[in-house]
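Q: I have 160 residues here and want to know how they pack in 3D. Can you give me a structure?
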Amino acid sequence: MSFSTKQYREALGRFATGVAVVTCPGDGMGPVGVTVNSFSSLSLDPPLILWCLDKGSDRSDVFRNCDHFVVNVLATGQQDLSVRFAEVGQHDFSGIRHEPGVLGVPVLPDALAVLECNVEARHDGGDHVIYVGRVLEMSSRDGEPLLYFSGQYREIKHKT
């Protein structure tokens, strides 16, 4: 390779992404969540999405053993949730407002979109696991997305 890991990461950071918190029921210790920006649509028919989780994450075992998960697409103003669920050891829902979705998995009430999924497949992806989910239930609302670009949270700037 003619580039370093740092250069590669910086180049990838030039792609603006939305931010989501993926939740699962947990493994007897209660539900957990993790912040991701690796969320993407995969297929319209059947309705499939994907997201990726670092194999070294302190939540990898929990997600490896769950059959359902929810993708909560965050809105502007929900940066605190993104930061909370990105921190090592901060994966539980203590002090976090949530409600059970149709599958019993935590849903964040003010998310822009909520996609409740069964795990369709897990694939090895280098230092990550790629999760493919079949969307069983969903909802969305109007609002502005929380964005991430070049290592910082961003907002859409509207021309006046």
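Q: Anything worth noting?
A: The helical segments are 5-12, 60-64, 79-86. Residues 5-12 form the longest helix (8 residues).
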